[in-house]
Amino acid sequence: MSDHKMIDWQSAAITHRGNVRAYNEDAYVAHPEYGVWAVADGMGGHHAGDVASREVVAGLAKVAGAKSWKELETTCHSQLQAVNAKLFKEGMQQQAQIIGSTVVCMIASERQAAMLWAGDSRGYQLRDNKLTQLTSDHSRTNELIAKGILKPEAAESHPDANVITRAVGVAQSLEVDQIDFSIQTGDIYLLCSDGLTRYVAEPELVRCLNLPTCQAAVEELLRLTLANEARDNVSAIVMKATEADNSTTVFNYVADAESEDMTLLNLGDD
Fold first, then answer.
1. Any idea what DSSP says for residue 13?
2. pLDDT at residue 261 above 50?
3. Where along the chain do its domains lie?
4. Topology annotation, domain 7-266
5. Burial of 14: CB neighbours in 10 Å, binned 0-12, 13-18, 19+
6. pLDDT over 70 percentage in the chain
7. Taking Cα atoms as reference points, which of 247, 239, 243, 246 lies closest to residue 264?
8. What confidence tens digit (pLDDT) does each residue in 72-127 have?
9. Phi, psi angles (nearest 5°) of residue 203
C-alpha cells in the first residue's frame, strides 16, 4: 500500500438511554470529513450530566474545519479546557454541584492521528484483527489494578467500580491524556462510553467491528448491550480507514456524503 495515499473515513454512531434510565446523559460528535470524533458520558444526574456531555461535544464540534494537524490538535485541547472552565464555574455557582462528563476524542489528518481522553470512556483500535485498547481508564479501580491491589476480573464488583478520577468540569484544572499513532488502511476504531464496555466482552467487540459496514457494527453493538440488560446509557462510534483517491485535496476525504459517512452530531436525546 502506498503511504502517500489519503485516507477515506467511513463512520457511524449510535446512542441510547439503555434499559433502565429515563434519560440519556451521553452525547457524541462525528465529523469524518474533518477527522474529528468524540463520545462524552455525562455525570451528575439529569440537567447536569446531560448538560455537561452536550457542552463537551458542542465544543469539539468547533474543531471541525482546522486546516492543519497542529491546528486540529491545538484546537481540540483548547476547546476541552474552555468547556472544563465553563462547567466548573457553573457547578460552583450552583453550590458546588457536579456538572461533569468523561470524554474520548479521536482526531486524524491523513495518516496521522491521536486519541485524547479524560475518564473511563474508551478508544479501541482493530488492526489485523487484533483489538487494542488505546486509552486507559481514569478510574479508582484501574488505579488499584495498576498497583497490584485489585485483579482486573474483580473490578466490576468492587465498591468503587463507578468512581472515576478525571472528567471534564469537575475540577478547576483538567488533565487530558493523549496517545499519538499512525493510521493504516483497513484500521477500524471504536469510541464508546462505559455503558458499552461494561456489558459487551472484547471477543464480541471484535465480531461486531468486523461486520461489513460501520452502521451494521454500531447497531449490533447496541443490540448486544441492550440484550445484556444494560442499566447505563450507551454510545458508540465506529470508524474505518480505507484508501482514498489521492487526487482529492480536502483535509480528510469522505466519498459519499449521502451514505453512513455523513457528519453526525447527537446531543443524547434518544
1. E
2. no
3. 7-266
4. Phosphatase 2c; domain 1 (3.60.40)
5. buried
6. 79
7. 239
8. 999 999 999 999 999 999 999 987 688 999 999 999 998 999 999 999 999 999 99
9. -60, -35
Sheet of strand 122-127, all strands in order from the earlier edge strand to the far edge: 7-16, 234-243, 188-192, 122-127, 130-133
- pLDDT tens for 29-44 read 999 999 999 999 999 7
Quickly count: other Cβ atoms within 10 Å of residue 82's Cβ: 14
Alpha-carbon torsion (110, 114, 115, 116), positive or negative = negative
Q: Report the alpha-carbon distance of residue 11 to residue 17 in Å, rounded.
A: 21
- The whole model's pTM is what? 0.87
Average pLDDT for the chain: 86
- What pLDDT is recorded for position 163? 73
The Cβ of residue 157 has, within 10 Å, a number of other Cβ atoms equal to 8
Amino acid making up residue 263: T
Grid coordinates belonging to 164: 472515576
- The grid coordinates listed for 52 are 455537561
Residues in the chain: 270
Q: Say how far apart CA 125 and CA 117 lie, in whole Å.
A: 15
Using CA atoms, how far residue 117 sits from 11, 20, 103, 105, 135, in Å, is 19, 27, 5, 6, 7
Strand ranges (E), the chain: 7-16, 26-31, 36-43, 100-109, 112-118, 122-127, 130-133, 177-182, 188-192, 234-243, 264-266
